[in-house]
Amino acid sequence: MAAQMLADITSLRIIVIGGSAVDAGTLIYPFTFTLRDLIHKVAGKSVARTIIVLAAVINLLMAGLFWLVARWPADPVTGPQQSFGEVLAPVWGIVIASIIAEVVSELIDTEVYSRWVARFGDRLQWGRVLASNSIAVPIDSAIFVGLATGFGVFSPDVAWSIFWVNVAIKGLVTVISIPWIYMVKPTPLAAVSP
Fold first, then answer.
1. Which of 3, 71, 72, 155 is most enclosed, with most CB atoms within 10 A?
2. What pTM does this model have?
3. Which residues form the domain of 156?
4. Of 138 and 122, more confident
5. Residue 91 gets which letter from DSSP?
């Protein structure tokens, strides 16, 4: 949840990596796919789904709180505090696009992971991460970029740049994070989770 919150906050800023535009949330968000896989392995599918939905609710509440605080009158004795609203007031198109993309792609990730485990059991654990992330990552990026562009946040040129850089970085993080799946042990709860 913390990684998703940090990703949603930093997604409000578009940065340049290798000459291409990318939302800064891409620096942390890719780890959430493998972290969700670890939760799935340790606690089961039901808990993984619950975490996905809870993270979406918390992120929406966080954006609402930032919006409220940015509009609340600042204490005149303290002095101008305009930076808060300029930095943290949500761009609702990005917030909504991020949360929808997160929920849809991570639920898909959970289903692919679950099917992999049903087919291969404890064998080929690296494949759980690779298969689920390989399907969920482009879906996440496409939904995010498509919705944000539809909301008028990005131009089509910037959107394509963000899409391709997001997919490349998330793919790289997937490969780097594959060994993590071997660092956790499933609990009896995970074995009976639907």
1. 3
2. 0.87
3. 2-192
4. 138
5. -
